[in-house]
Design brief:
68% helix
Length: 442
């Protein structure tokens, strides 16, 4: 697979912005087809995987044809797949096929005329006599959609909040380009402060919205607004806020008022944030999902939640080729990761004893990367070892360990403030952050 291919970028961009919507009835229908128990995916899944594989080898007419055919086979029509096919057709000057795909996308729910009008890969269509009519049809789709929701003004407020989030991130990215290759972590953190400020504003606004209206789900603000209400806690760094929102999303999902994908992604994001294995495989890393608990049965859990697509398809949405392991393969992999984590922890302690802090940092970071293979007691022991060292990386790792232990609500977390190893931290910003989290965890 070509990780840097343009096709992977297309997949990531579309899914990050739009996601997938999977009603419970249809997930039950797919469950009856038995792809999670027989090991045989339905035809639409096999077709979509093949299309992604072709697309990953390069944008070709064959890839566009396969995407279109897969979209036609899907039990719930997905406008993003039709849209993706259209972008490939357009780059190959296949205008007839591109417009056909876009009209199919409109029928399946495309209602963003701004995205369509500005999408670079559709630029070849802009001089076609059908272009303006198409944009007008999409705009009408949007108007009908807005009229169908309870609180369109609240939707506008959420959209403005999200626009400001994205603006802050894009401005940060632009500013980082001016930093030289030797820029410190602190320099990047200083530039990132504006993004964190925006996240804080959006978090407070969402809290106010919840207090007044309850959770802003599909009925209140439509699918677009519900997606934004989910995305805001995804960005906000405090796990306690994420957990609060997850609980509300779960209640809304059970009433059919939130996409189960949103619950899965936030649930697994929290697991990633607190260094534990994810449940649904909804959090992707570089070239593979973040560690999954019981990965051999992940598709059964996905179907039970109401997710239409198996993990192979979801991974391809993010430009990742992934095959669910067998029970035996998963058992061997788990034993191996546990062994490696424990060996890294043992080596970490050896380097600590030698006061070789750089090597110690590397090994504890490696041990942590196996999510869930170090106990809370081991993590706490590591924080005590690292705390006395005046080393920037050690301080970051130590602080992150303490935050994770508090977020996990480790039963012994309140003894942190009584340990002499942290005396040197007492007047520092990091200590205030930890003590505030401890108060929230009560």
């Amino acid at each position: 697979m070509k990780n840097n291919s343009l096709s992977a970028v297309y997949i990531c961009l579309l899914i990050l912005i739009f996601g997938c919507n999977t009603p419970k009835k249809e997930s039950e229908k797919i469950s009856k087809e038995g792809y999670t128990t027989s090991g045989q995916n339905p035809k639409w899944v096999r077709s979509l995987i093949n299309a992604y594989r072709t697309l990953n080898d390069g944008q070709s007419i064959e890839a566009a044809n396969q995407l279109y055919e897969a979209a036609e086979l899907m039990p719930k029509k997905n406008w993003e797949i039709y849209f993706m096919a259209a972008t490939v057709y357009a780059t190959k000057n296949k205008n007839e096929e591109a417009f056909q795909s876009l009209h199919k996308a409109i029928q399946a729910g495309l209602r963003d005329s701004v995205l369509t009008a500005t999408y670079p890969s559709l630029s070849n269509l802009r001089n076609d006599s059908r272009w303006n009519t198409l944009l007008h049809t999409i705009s009408n789709n949007r108007k009908k959609y807005t009229q169908s929701i309870k609180n369109p003004e609240l939707l506008k407020e959420l959209e403005e909040m999200w626009a400001q989030d994205q603006l802050a991130l894009s401005q940060y990215e632009e500013k980082t380009k001016s930093l030289d290759s030797n820029a410190s972590v602190e320099e990047y953190q200083l530039l990132f402060k504006a993004v964190e400020d925006r996240w804080e504003i959006n978090k407070n606004k969402l809290d106010s919205i919840i207090d007044i209206h309850g959770w802003p789900g599909n009925e209140l603000v439509g699918e677009d607004g519900a997606k934004i209400s989910w995305a805001i806690p995804q960005h906000y760094p405090d796990v306690f806020f994420k957990q609060k929102c997850l609980s509300l999303i779960k209640k809304a999902m059970k009433k059919g008022d939130m996409d189960p994908n949103h619950y899965a992604e936030l649930n697994d994001r929290i697991a990633r944030d607190i260094w534990q294995k994810q449940t649904y495989g909804a959090s992707m890393g570089q070239g593979a999902p973040h560690p999954i608990q019981d990965p051999a049965n992940v598709d059964q859990r996905r179907v039970a939640l109401g997710l239409l697509e198996p993990i192979e398809v979801y991974a391809y949405f993010h430009g990742i080729e992934y095959q669910r392991p067998s029970q035996e393969e998963a058992k061997i992999a788990l034993a191996t990761s546990h062994q490696k984590a424990q060996q890294n922890f043992k080596t970490f302690k050896k380097f600590i004893a030698q006061k070789n802090i750089d090597s110690a940092n590397t090994h504890i970071a490696s041990a942590i990367s196996f999510y869930g293979e170090l106990s809370n007691d081991q993590l706490y022991q590591a924080s005590l070892y690292l705390a006395p060292f005046e080393n920037k990386r050690s301080k970051r790792i130590c602080k992150n360990i303490l935050k994770v232990l508090v977020w996990r609500k480790w039963e012994n977390r309140f003894k942190i403030t009584k340990q002499p190893e942290f005396i040197s931290w007492y007047n520092k910003k990091e200590w205030l952050e930890i003590t505030e989290l401890l108060q929230k965890s009560q």
